[in-house]
Amino acid sequence: MTAANTPVLHPDLTPAQRDCLDALPLTGHHVVSGPPGSGKSLLAAHRAVHLSLTGRPTLLLSRSNLLRQLLRETLQGLTVPGAPVEAATVHGWLRQHFGPYAPRTEDGWFDWTVLTREAAATLGEDDTATPHLVVDEGQDVPVGFYRLVRLAAASVTVFADECQRLTETNSTLSEITDALGRSTGRVEIGGNHRNTRQIAALAEHFHTGGTRPELPFRSGSLPDVRHYSGNRDLAEDIVALAARHPRDRIGVIVDSMRSASELLGHLERSGLARRPQLYNSAATARRYRDLDLACPGVVLVHRASAKGLDFDTVVITGTETDAATDPTAAGLRMAYYVMITRARERLVLGWQGRRLPRHLEGLDGLVTMH
């Protein structure tokens, strides 16, 4: 296949998304940016399928294992016979490429200097095996990774939004572009095809940095801020939500795994129509590692694992744990921006204790209070 742009293979994209995809040549490095709901993950999957048609190995990478599972499910409906795409975590691919004992650093990542030297030493030895890499939520990957894959990959396409950085080892769009080289292409995609106007408006209250995206046209109900006497009360409300919306995928975003385990116990004893699912990144049991994210029902995920996901209904729990944090702090605002934008139709922000958390004050007109 030549370096010319491929035709659109699949019809499930908006005109703007098709234009974005068609604007990306099959050679070179590229950074695609866009706000939540613009379809970056879907475009990343389509981009990987297009690149796989060149005959090179193609990988769709993410930092999060849970997002990897979602991307794998997306690819199953897109992959062209004879041109497979593998969905993997960044850690998993690096271990596969450089060996299980590749040197690490104290932050849990790899020694980028050593691996970059190794990649430079083997440059051009087996060019046909050099892969195309597509990275989703690329802002959560260290800049050292991009300096490395500039040498270790045939092409790198990064989908990112620097307003959604939730990790300490993250990269800005400029840092990613600089690391990949001056010839790196930049493309922006707009629009919000996920949230209602009311949910997006609340997210904008917490938006920090960058250009504020336009609000979507689709309308819905105002998000709810609800007080709970404890996790049992919270579980009862989640059960009621599931009963009213039996076809919904309900994402419960928790602040700690201890709280998640307690909440799971209440839900399992509640008689839900479908067994609730819990994702724990530290778990070894498949039940808490491999989830069915397309199935209706309740899924409990930690804040750190929510990036890139979406649900019909989202319940954000434990907001009182942020009460002592400066409500203007960029980290806090970014965290709530990410969590809120996971919701497609309905959103609940739950709190416990005697006083409404400071960062949930002053939301008149944006939420209903219960």
Keyphrases for this structure?
370 residues; Rossmann fold; seven-stranded parallel sheet; 11 helices; 13 strands; disordered N terminus
Description:
By secondary structure, the chain is of the alpha/beta class. It has two domains: 15-188, P-loop containing nucleotide triphosphate hydrolases (Rossmann fold, 3-Layer(aba) Sandwich), CATH 3.40.50; 197-369, Rossmann fold (3-Layer(aba) Sandwich), CATH 3.40.50.300. It has helices at 15-22, 40-52, 65-76, 90-98, 112-121, 143-152, 173-180, 197-206, 231-244, 257-268, 330-340; strands spanning 30-33, 58-62, 86-89, 132-136, 155-160, 185-188, 224-227, 249-254, 277-278, 297-302, 311-316, 343-351, 368-369. The strands form two sheets. It has a seven-stranded parallel β-sheet with strand order 9-10-8-11-12-7-13. The protein has a six-stranded parallel β-sheet with strand order 3-2-4-5-1-6, with helices on both faces. α5 (112-121) runs parallel beside α6. The longest helix has 14 residues, at 231-244. The protein starts with 14 loop residues before the first helix and ends with a strand.
Overview in brief:
By secondary structure, the chain is α/β, with parallel strands linked by helices. The protein contains eleven helices and 13 strands. It comes from Allostreptomyces psammosilenae.
The portion of residues forming beta strands comes to 15-25%
Alpha carbon gyration radius:
21 Å
Fraction in helix: 25-40%
Main CATH class of the largest domain = Alpha Beta
Roughly what is the average pLDDT, rounded to an integer?
91
CATH architecture classification of the largest domain: 3-Layer(aba) Sandwich
Please report the distance between the alpha carbons of the first and last residues.
59 Å
Strand order of the largest sheet: 9-10-8-11-12-7-13
CATH topology of the largest domain: Rossmann fold
Number of strands: 13
SSE class: alpha/beta
The residue ranges in which pLDDT falls below 50 over 5 or more consecutive positions are: 1-8
CATH homologous superfamily designation of the largest domain: P-loop containing nucleotide triphosphate hydrolases
Net shape: globular
Alpha plus pi helix count? 11
The main β sheet shows up as: 7 strands, parallel
Question: What is the succession of H and E elements?
Answer: HEHEHEHHEHEHEHEHEHEEEHEE
Total count of domains: 2
Keywords: ATP-binding, Helicase, Hydrolase, Nucleotide-binding
GO molecular function: 3'-5' DNA helicase activity; ATP binding; DNA binding
Protein name: Superfamily I DNA/RNA helicase
